[in-house]
Specification:
With 421 residues, this protein is of the alpha/beta class. It is 39% helix and 14% strand.
Length: 421
């Protein structure tokens, strides 16, 4: 099936006489006919749902849909994008291990990696998103377990050369994790370029309506965890009655391990109702992404022609540094997010944002409605000046998330605000 069709039909198939719309299983637990049957599920957690702390039928259907869209073998939803980022790393790294990440990532993720994981004994080694293969290789240590990057960085909109990072990862026998939040699988499927694990903040385009926070981890099923670098996958897990994930769940050892070790203990799983709302967003994802991209390109072209911005970063513009990479990895469009650096610095940026009437000034992005944010004073305010520079952020930068309003109305709103500066 094509993506438009998968958005509507993957994950859930009505039985004869059953509900056409995927139902909400709003239950913490599930009844079995015997003690033995419950024990059998503990022996093999893929047999049935047992407790909504780590699986739920509604959320399971959404996981199957997202895995199908990404071209993966299995997925696990989480309570937030941050939790997806955290679990994607902790499923591979123990205290004393390290991993490499592009420095150009979402501010919350950067703080998670640089500060919180450091407290847990996991070292994050940052590299420039444009680093050469040799430069990335020079950061690899004997204890390095993964490489991480964002397909389209938030908010600097740099395009990750997925194949380059994948080559380095695989040369060293470690997986590449790609945050595909901004493109979604409609615009880019990182598995096709060598990524091994994909994560999303589903709070963004997948949900699309700013209804609930969520995240997801998708397993490609292609990485070989028996290569000697990951004994936690190949040796018995004594915390789960001796399960050997690569032996017992060879089809998707990464996701099963994440669910039965991390989700079981952390319990950061979405409710059935959250899964239902996310599915409603996914059903229109393909047609929404097409409109986001169309609106954003026209808006970015308008910004570029005003002469009031030092920089208009949108990979769909031919003047953009990442245009060629965008044509390779994001040929269908480059999302609805534009990164702007206005002349006049922070004061001008705030004045421009506060002067908008249609667009909302809010801490969100990738919504059906146009919204704006000043990262240096909001999502990235905890970072030092040096870290801000490494993330591609300066005081005048504005993240402009183009919505689904008529593009002429969006541009008219920009025009009236700029007239006041």
């Amino acid at each position: 099936m094509k993506d438009n069709t998968k958005c509507l039909h993957s994950g859930y198939t009505p039985v004869n006489g059953g509900p056409r719309v995927m139902p909400i299983y709003q239950s913490t637990t599930f009844r079995f006919n015997s003690t033995k049957e419950i024990g059998d599920v503990f022996d093999d957690p893929t047999k049935a749902h047992i407790y909504t702390r780590f699986t739920n039928p509604t959320v399971d259907a959404v996981e199957k849909k997202i895995a199908d869209l990404e071209g993966g073998v299995a997925a696990m939803c989480t309570s937030s994008g941050q939790m997806a980022s955290l679990m994607s790393i902790l499923n591979l790294c123990n205290s004393g291990d390290s991993f490499i990440s592009s420095a150009s990532i979402y501010g919350g993720t950067l703080n998670l990696f640089a500060v919180t994981l450091k407290k847990l004994g996991v070292e994050c080694i940052f590299v420039d998103v444009d680093a050469t293969e040799e430069e990335i290789q020079s950061k690899i240590k004997p204890n390095t377990k993964a490489i991480f990057g964002e397909t389209l960085t938030n908010p600097s909109l740099q395009v990750l050369d997925i194949e380059k990072f994948a080559r380095v990862a695989h040369k060293n026998g470690i997986p590449l994790i790609v945050d595909n939040t901004f493109p979604t699988p409609i615009l880019c499927k990182p598995f096709e370029y060598g990524a091994d694990i994909v994560i999303h903040s589903t709070s963004k385009y997948m949900d699309g309506h700013a209804l609930q926070v969520g995240g997801v981890i998708v397993d490609s099923g292609k990485f070989d965890y028996t290569n000697g670098n990951f004994p936690d996958f190949t040796e018995p897990d004594e915390s789960y009655h001796g399960t050997v994930y690569t032996r017992d769940y060879s089809f998707a050892p990464y996701i099963v391990k994440a669910r039965m070790q991390l989700m079981r203990d952390f319990g950061a799983y979405p409710s059935g109702n959250s899964g239902f709302l996310l599915n409603l967003g996914l059903e229109t994802l393909a047609i929404r992404m097409e409109k986001y991209c169309s609106n954003a390109l026209k808006t970015a072209q308008y910004f570029e022609n005003t002469g009031k911005f030092e920089v208009v970063d949108y990979p769909g513009l031919k003047s953009n540094k990442y245009y060629e990479l965008a044509q390779k990895y994001l040929p269908k469009g480059q999302s609805g997010v534009i990164s702007l650096t206005i002349k006049g610095g922070k004061e001008a940026a705030i004045k421009f944002m506060d002067g908008l009437k249609l667009a909302s000034n809010e801490v969100h992005v990738a919504d059906i409605r146009t919204c704006v944010l000043h990262p240096a004073s909001a999502t990235h305010r905890q970072l030092t000046d040096e870290q801000l520079v490494n993330c591609g952020i300066n005081p005048g930068l504005v993240r402009f998330s183009v919505g689904l309003e008529d593009v002429d109305d969006i541009i008219a709103d920009i025009e009236q605000s700029l007239a006041k500066i």
